[in-house]
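A note from the maintainers: we've had questions about how concatenated examples are separated. There is no special marker in the raw files; a new sequence line simply starts the next protein. For clarity in this README we add a label.
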Amino acid sequence: MLSLLYFDVEDFTSPPGHPSHRLPGEFARIMTKHRFGGGCFHIMGQKVRHMIRHGQDDVIKAIAAHDVSLHYDRGSIHPTTAEETSQLPWHEAVSRVLFRERPGVDLLMDVFGKCSAVTRHGWIWSASIAYAAGRMGLPFFNGPFWPTGHGVVWLCNNLDIRGLEKNREKGAELLLDQVYYDTPKFEQRLKQVLKNLEELTRLTDHSSMFGCHPSYTLYRQYVDYNFSKGRNPKLIDLLPPTERGADVATVLKNFERYIVALKAAADVTWTNVADIKRRYMYRPVRIARRHVEEFAQRVLECRGPVYTDVLTAAEGLCLLARAELAPVERYEVPTVMGPLSASPQPPAGEALPDEKALANLAGSLIDCVYGTGFLPAYCRLPGTEIRIAPASLAVRLALAFLGADAEAVGPLDNVNPAVLDNMGVDMPSTEWGAHGPMYDGRRIVEEASGQAWTLKPAFQRGDYAEDVETASYERPMILTEWAEYDGHVVSY
């Protein structure tokens, strides 16, 4: 199993001389001492500006020996990036993310010489943030969807790397923040963490471990408590959290014991975010017909859209539409996003008027995707009032592709399943103490559900089948090829 150890470095509220500011550098030096190559520091842009302003060059140098990612530029300062994107339509939200977070990426590049990802802070997440990170050439770290057995996924046409793994059956988190200062508690928790790590090596290809929030090892609260429930004090009025009374020497001693134990863990290869990206950045771009057939079979099993190891639900739907128009033995995989809104009303009727109707619906879908890059909320059959939602159209096209009997799956239009219903993943949480009144969690969840059409596992290049061609670049939305149906020539 691949793993890494990450730290959320967020404290820009403590006085400059407080030990909280020294701890990230001390942790980095301990990992360097033991040649532990899996350390990743996720740092807020505001924290980096604090480090520069107060001359913490030695801390910067120590951290720069390891991997560094942006933990959002302004962290919990309101409005947060998630609060803003929850109020904006997709394209405006993406532009806003680039405007808000690109300065932080550039800052880390200037200060540390690297920035490997954008990483989630609290529940500052939206599908548009994950997508915009990809437009900056960066994976997103710790998104909300965790398919079983996979620690790296494609989501919003960007790589998403799993963050802190939870043992959901036991409810035990792999956290040591609050126990480094207390050696008996640390020893008890360390045994639990190492046992859980051993279990994870049998369950998934990658799972990250969590080093700590450095400041939380010394404080009783997270440093962003200043911004709880939308509060937004001036920077000069920020207050440090309540002290825990922890001894720094004890924290460092126990952290070093943790590093020694992790390095000795069996069946774990320690890496970092940058290396995960290099390993997993290759995506399928050409596939054999059998993979479309596998997708169609899975759609019928689930009575709705679902991902496979090779295709997202959106990619699979587009290839079923392409096959309805002009089947081939090898298919080029397009880059396509999920719908930006749900179908506004239930589909009208179950029966299609003639044998050409399904091809015309397939053409309608392809036309929309080619023109916009997104699945439509529904496809209208030209010249009629028949409207078919993408989930229902996926079932119809899968039946046609496999030559299956419609009665085998029951009514086609009465059920329009949410994509996530078939995917075995949890809906993203939106509960977080820092969210203010402008945060619209409902919009975040709706957007996440729509872009779940873009979810599938990611694999290292050599782990795909021989009949799957991969590349490190995106395909066009829909390739400019041509097919004839109903006397019309349509690009797809």
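[label: protein 2]
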Amino acid sequence: MMVPIRCFSCGKQLAGVYEEFKKKVEKGEKPEKAMTDLGVKRYCCRRMIFSHVDLIDEISKYPR
């Protein structure tokens, strides 16, 4: 899985937050509340996590 390591705008480290965010959302918690609980308060960081699409498993199926 390729998660953005840092926010492109402010530089805050986000790699450690993504897994926990994903678990909370899969359990049924609202994404907004999950991000607030994890300490992601800036809208630029929230955008990075919320809009991330994990495509590495799809891309790795195709050889060069």
